[in-house]
Amino acid sequence: DGEAYANLLNVLAPEHSNPSTLAVKNPLQRAKLILEHADRMGCRRYLTAKDIVEGSPNLNLAFVAHIFQHRNGLSTQTKEISFLEVSPDDTQISREERAFRFWINSLGNSTYIDNVFEDLRNGWVLLETLDKLSPGIVNWKIANKPPIKLPFRKVENCNQVVKIGKQLKFSLVNIAGNDIVQGNKKLILALLWQMMRYNVLQLLKNLRFHSHGKEITDADILQWANAKVRISGSQSRMNSFKDKSLADGIFFLELLSAVQPRAVNWSLVTKGVTDEEKKMNATYIISIARKLGCSIFLLPEDMTEVNQKMILTLTASIMHWFMKQPVEEKASGISDSENGSQSETISNSTLDDSASDSSIEENGNI
């Protein structure tokens, strides 16, 4: 009936409100007044008055998303401060911290963390996370449970974290437990990235029953995504997880359409030429992936700036979702035998440089 939209727009943009909107009895006429209000706010129309009255899910979702983009409660002053005082490196670190924090909290540990640089320093949550990634790998007899008052007890926990990381073949050269206790941001992010990546690859490995125990590599994920898009009839391709052409979002929209043909409403997709169009596509991709049930921890900016780590996790999440679906429900895809033959052609390296350059290299001595 449009009442929710009318109330929302009156709160967000009272300067453009029309007192008669809520007084109108005809839902279609009210919907027209709502769209006029949105136009005065500068929101481009994604839908017609009829779409509002009929409750079109996708078009209403896009409309609300566009309203949020224009009026999201973030003050101009806050944005000015962020541009003046926060360096690009700090912004990147903040986004990665957020992604890893969401991932860790999604695992259901005993402690909910608000900041990975502060809440992981005693090593306990890291040990819990590692135990979920590889059950039984933590020696709980020598672990120190919070609250921990003595600093060296925290170091003992973090030393075990590093030791387990090396068992799992993480790249942890010149990193010690004390680096985590001291809150070294780059080292903590490097460790968390390897833990998150290990988790994703293990989930895929558990589903790849036809791989006969073969380790899943970044190259496997890359090749799977390209194969899915190619088989769907598209010429799009990503050369690596840092391929700058991914910024427009078209490849991932085609990948999502390939794994679930009804997922993408192409009338909502932009050409991805301008920064705004790229961000709109990225937001739509994240929305679709979440609606399908994929575990998504990235932001639209991670896509438009092609953050290779987050692009890898997005692709792997889509792959994991697809492979969990019953065979008869897969809209299109590669048979197990085809996947198996593909896997045999791919190098069994732990990390394929052509697919994804790990952020570990960026940290110098790690």
From TrEMBL:
Alphabetical GO biological process terms: actin filament bundle assembly; actin filament network formation
GO cellular component terms, semicolon-separated: actin filament; actin filament bundle; cytoplasm
Gene3D superfamilies, per database record: Calponin-like domain
Region forming the signal peptide: none
InterPro entries membership: Actinin_actin-bd_CS (IPR001589), CH_dom (IPR001715), CH_dom_sf (IPR036872), Fimbrin/Plastin (IPR039959)
Biased composition (Polar residues): 334-366
One MF term in the entry's GO annotations: actin filament binding
Localization in the cell: Cytoplasm, Cytoskeleton
Pfam families, A to Z: CH
Domain annotation Calponin-homology (CH): ranges: 1-72, 94-200, 215-323
SUPFAM superfamilies: Calponin-homology domain, CH-domain
Alphabetic keyword roster: Actin-binding, Cytoplasm, Cytoskeleton, Repeat
Annotated TM spans: none
CDD domains for the chain: CH_AtFIM_like_rpt3
Principal localisation: cytoplasm
Origin: domain of life: Eukaryota
Region (Disordered): 332-366
PANTHER family referenced in this protein's UniProt entry, alphabetically: FI19014P1, FIMBRIN/PLASTIN
Quaternary structure note: Interacts with F-actin.
Protein name listed in UniProt: Calponin-homology (CH) domain-containing protein
Organism field: Citrus clementina
